[in-house]
Write a structure and sequence with these properties.
The protein starts with 7 loop residues before the first helix and ends in a 9-residue tail after the last strand. The protein is an alpha+beta fold. The chain has two domains: 11-155 and 199-297, Urate Oxidase (Roll); 157-188. 31% of the residues lie in helices and 35% in strands. The chain binds guanosine-5'-triphosphate. Guanosine-5'-triphosphate binds next to α2. It holds the Pfam family GCHY-1.
């Protein structure tokens, strides 16, 4: 290796002096083994962002390669968990002595989970988009975990309007004299009987929770399970006809506006005692070309804003 290579990060003057909040790299390709409670360690293909602050006003720049190599160690020699992320953040800061006292790592990846069908006993893969952001500031680490849960929402207004049409069709078809249980039963099984169906839409709950420095284990599976159990109509993986029928029943029994979904999720996050949370519910409307959206936060002073 040539020994006299110029190192302008150390020697060149800054074009203009000043502190910077974050400097680093984005879109780093980084496969790693992710560890989370109740999950066998799983290899994921992440995109990473790695940052330190630059508080030395006249320093030309940070040492990108030192951040990159600390991340590479996470990818090749370790598994990703709160302890190893804390080590990487520590390396970010110690390798930038005099330049930086804050560090941040963000991972974006898809987490594949085995999901059971509703009734048939089958199973299939479903991928959940995850963003994990870890920050050290004033020697304190915090983690932010964002998951997206996809589900189906059936419009309660549309359901009521459809029921009214069914009642009207019933009145037209039957009167007191002609009413027979057999005829009504048969008629209910026709499209003339169930003359209208409510619209439903693919919907996504974006949920971000804050985990403090005491977090010694990520628990993504439990968070996803809790959200899906509350929404009751998560998008399915393996589906046989009996599962599809159960999905139809669950949709019919869990009609929801975006406000309903947001309040349900807010209640479970309150219950789970996260130090802070942010949620956005998106109903990608099939009635409209626009979406229905609801947002809520815990409301902690200095915390997430809606
Ligand atoms: N700071 C900084 N570096 C950049 C930027 N764009 C590319 N780089 C490159 O990032 C590379 C790595 O920089 P360093 O970490 O200082 O590399 P190095 O000097 O070999 O490593 P050390 O000996 O540990 O300092 C350099 O080749 C820079 O040119 C930028 O916008 N800012």
């Amino acid at each position: 290796m040539q020994t006299n290579m110029p190192d302008i990060a150390d020697t060149a003057p800054a074009l203009q002096t000043g502190k910077l909040d974050w400097v680093g790299m984005g879109e780093i390709e980084l496969p790693f083994i992710f560890e989370s409670k109740d999950l066998a360690p799983v290899t994921v293909n992440a995109k990473a962002r790695a940052f330190v602050n630059l508080h030395k006003e006249d320093a030309k720049g940070i040492h990108m390669s030192r951040l990159f190599l600390a991340l590479d160690l996470l990818s090749t020699e370790q598994q990703v968990n709160p302890q190893t992320i804390a080590q990487a953040l520590d390396t970010f800061i110690t390798s930038h002595e005099g330049l930086s006292d804050k560090a941040q790592i963000e991972f974006k990846f898809e987490l594949p989970l085995r999901r059971k069908s509703l009734l048939s006993g089958k199973a299939g893969w479903k991928s959940y988009p995850i963003t994990l952001t870890s920050t050290i500031e004033n020697n304190v680490i915090s983690y932010e975990l964002t998951v997206d849960v996809t589900y189906s929402s059936t419009c309660p207004c549309s359901a009521a309007l459809a029921r009214q049409l069914i009642q009207n069709a019933f009145n037209e078809k039957f009167n007191q004299e002609t009413l027979s249980q057999k005829d009504v039963h048969e008629w209910l099984g026709t499209t003339q009987g169930i003359v209208a169906t409510p619209h439903s839409q693919r919907s996504i709950a974006n949920v971000k929770v804050k985990l403090d420095s005491s977090c010694d284990e990520f628990d993504v599976v439990n968070l996803i399970n809790t959200l899906e159990a509350e929404l009751k109509t998560p998008v399915q993986a393996a589906v046989k006809r009996e599962d599809e029928q159960e999905f139809a029943r669950l949709n019919g029994q869990n009609l929801m506006f975006c406000e309903d979904a947001a309040r349900k999720i807010k209640a479970v996050l309150e219950n789970d005692n996260f130090s802070d949370y942010w949620l956005q519910i998106n109903h990608y409307e099939s009635l409209h070309a626009h979406d229905a959206v609801a947002i809520a936060v815990k409301g902690v002073s200095g915390g997430y804003k809606a």
